[in-house]
Automatic annotation (TrEMBL):
Protein name, entry field: Protein kinase domain-containing protein
Matching Gene3D superfamilies: Phosphorylase Kinase, domain 1, Ribonuclease Inhibitor, Transferase(Phosphotransferase) domain 1
TM annotation in the entry: 392-416
Any Pfam family the entry gives: PK_Tyr_Ser-Thr
UniProt cross-references to SUPFAM superfamilies, sorted A to Z: L domain-like, Protein kinase-like (PK-like)
Signal peptide: 1-21
One GO cellular component term: membrane
Subcellular location per the Swiss-Prot or TrEMBL entry: Membrane
Length: 649
């Protein structure tokens, strides 16, 4: 009897281990190995080489994990290290950190669909490129799909609407350039939708207001325009991130449970709705860099959970009520660059280490040089009202004129196309190709395409900035007194910097550049053109260049000078030490500097293609202007200093 009990116990233990040991079916093993081949054997999957088919027992890492259930793969997570950099591929400008020309996204997805029980699929930074195939819908069990930081373009395929179990969809950092699908409301379980850092156009789809399960909507850094629909039906929504788009409607009431609302850098107009003052769970509100006006909604400051409130760079007017109260959690307030007048309420005027308040560029009654006179704000508001009536009449006339011109052009185009019909019919039977207009021989479309993309991305930052031009050597010699030692500002690893004064009286900083390799004149000008497109409020503006002694046969360039705007208040390091002659910055000002630098770095990393890294981020390279606004210098030097030019010649 005792032996029988022992036998039963042994059988139970064996069954337990058998039940928890998964041996994948052979077709799934082959599918995984084929996926590794499609991904061109990334180092993150080297552990798959000697696994003897026992993928389910592999130790998870930060870059790879596999979870199995019932002898099938249910979770597959792979994270690579591919970065964005454009190059030319069959006449197109495409990222050269993608998988090779032989990669087929159709074959890749076909192989993926053999893992039919996948519930979680994460494929991040693997260089996957191409339009996402419709057949992705065959992964019918998917609950989470994350394909961030790849190079997917085109539209999100309609067939994905059949993935009804999906609760998380993340396509951040790709190149989708169609409109946002209006079929997302077919997902009954969708909680997180994140499509930031793409090139999505069109309007915010009204159908999204029907997805009541949503907790996160992240559509920032796209090209969305038009109206923001009523989202109050989204009772579970916690995060709404629509930063850096072109939305230009008035604000609408928002769901009550929101904790984070990021609507900065759009073109929202009108007043902030009264309902915003009832969002008692709101912790982070950013409405900066819009065209919002009227009186500031006092209820925003007293929200019980609010900790961060940014209303900067709008056209709010009037005065803040003296009885204004601030919530106990409020730690950061920015109302700078508006049209506010009067006294600052006590809850914003109290010096406290627990609350940072930014109020510059208003007309407040404060003893500071960073306020305009009260007349400035009143005049600006009255001018706005007067101009509005004139603008309406002018706009009407312009629209009528444009309509007449467009009709004329359409008629002319129709006549032209009729005359060219025979030729067009022949052309339709030719293979399509992309022609880079105005491109010089041996000049790749990479730099030309990058320059266009950067110019679009930096459009806002370049408004009002001086135009870029070519300086003569005579101008620089006169401005710097023949590069006299008295004009020398400093010397770094990439050359000396001189202070100069141009003929119009403007001061500049002239950098004499030490270029270790000799570039062709044409190649160098392409690099300089690319660098000139880096425009942002917190970057030191590059005003122009001078190439001294370029050979007439376009061979090599002996000397290069870069001309920057002159920043008068020294570098950040000089404002940190008590031994310096510069004024020591307060903690609130230091935080402002760091936020500005973070915005500049964010622009260099995400606002330009290719992203600019290795930007010499040091306290000595952070310069302060007369208003203590931070500007990053020495950025983008890798474009001029990189050792190899084989892809540019």
């Amino acid at each position: 009897m005792g032996c029988f009990k022992i036998l039963v116990i042994v059988l139970v233990i064996c069954c337990f281990f058998i039940a928890n040991t998964y041996q994948l079916q052979s077709y799934e093993i082959q599918a995984l190995l084929q996926l590794r081949k499609h991904l061109e054997y990334p180092v993150q999957l080297d552990v798959w080489e000697n696994d003897d088919g026992d993928f389910c027992s592999l130790t998870s890492t930060l870059h790879m994990s596999i979870t199995c259930q019932d002898n099938s793969v249910t979770e597959l997570k792979i994270k690579g290290d591919k970065l964005v950099k454009l190059t030319e591929f069959h006449g197109f400008a495409v990222p050269n950190q993608t998988l090779s020309e032989g990669f087929s996204i159709d074959s890749f997805v076909t192989t993926l669909t053999r893992l039919s029980n996948l519930k979680v699929l994460t494929l991040v930074s693997l260089g996957i490129w191409g339009p996402l195939p419709d057949k992705i819908h065959r992964l019918a069990s998917l609950e989470l799909l994350d394909m961030s930081s790849n190079f997917l373009f085109g539209s999100v395929p309609f067939q994905m609407s059949r993935l009804i179990k999906l609760h998380t969809l993340i396509f951040d950092g790709n190149f989708f350039n169609d409109t946002i699908p209006d079929w997302f409301d077919s997902y009954n379980n969708l909680t997180i939708l994140s499509l930031k850092n793409n090139r999505l156009t069109g309007q915010f789809p009204s159908s999204m207001s029907k997805i009541t399960t949503l907790t996160d909507i992240v559509l920032s850094h796209n090209v969305l325009s038009g109206k923001l629909p009523d989202l109050t039906a989204l009772s579970n929504l916690l995060l709404l991130d629509l930063r850096e788009n072109h939305l230009d409607s008035e604000l609408t009431p928002l769901p009550k449970r929101l904790t984070t609302v990021l609507l900065s850098s759009n073109a929202f107009t009108g007043e902030v709705p009264e309902e915003f003052g009832t969002l008692n769970q709101l912790q982070h509100l950013d409405l900066s860099n819009n065209s919002l006006g009227g009186m500031v909604l006092a209820g925003l400051f007293s929200l019980s959970s609010i900790s961060y409130l940014n209303l900067a760079s709008n056209v709010f007017s009037g005065s803040l009520p003296s009885s204004l109260t601030c919530g106990g959690e409020l730690g950061f307030v920015d109302i700078s660059d508006n049209r506010l007048v009067g006294r600052l309420p006590s809850c914003l005027n109290t010096v406290s280490d627990k609350r940072i308040v930014k109020v510059s560029e208003n007309c407040l009654s404060l003893d500071t040089q960073y306020q305009h006179s009260e007349g400035y704000c009143k005049q600006a508001n009255s001018d706005k009202k007067r101009i509005t009536v004139k603008e309406i009449a002018l706009l009407t006339g312009v629209i009528v004129g444009i309509v007449i011109v467009v009709v004329f052009l359409l008629v002319a185009l129709l006549l032209f196309r009729r005359s060219q019909r025979a030729r067009n019919m022949v052309d339709q039977h030719m293979l399509p190709k992309v022609v880079q207009h105005n491109a010089q021989p041996q000049v790749p479309s990479e730099l030309l395409a990058n320059a266009r993309i950067i110019s679009q991305a930096a459009n806002i930052g370049s408004q009002g900035a001086p135009s870029y031009r070519v300086f003569s050597m005579e101008e620089l010699l006169e401005a710097t007194k023949n590069f006299d030692q008295s004009t020398l500002l400093g010397e770094g690893s990439v050359g000396k910097i001189y202070k100069g004064r141009l003929g119009n009286g403007a001061y500049v900083a002239v950098r004499s550049l030490n270029v270790y390799r000799r570039y062709s004149n044409r190649n160098l000008k392409l690099r300089l053109d690319l660098l000139s497109k880096f425009r942002h409020p917190h970057l030191v503006s590059l005003l122009g260049h001078c190439i001294d002694g370029g050979a007439p046969d376009d061979s090599t360039v002996p000397r290069i000078f870069l001309i920057y705007e002159y920043i008068s208040n020294g570098n950040y390091r000089a404002h940190l030490s008590e031994n310096s002659t510069r004024k020591i910055l307060k903690w609130s000002d230091r935080l402002s500097v760091l936020i500005a630098v973070a915005k500049a770095v964010h622009f260099l990393h995400t606002g330009v293609i290719p992203s600019s890294f290795c930007n010499r981020l040091k306290t000595s390279n952070i310069l302060l202007d007369e208003h203590n606004m931070a500007k990053l210098s020495d950025y983008g030097m890798s474009i001029l200093m990189e050792e190899s030019e084989k892809v540019y010649i």
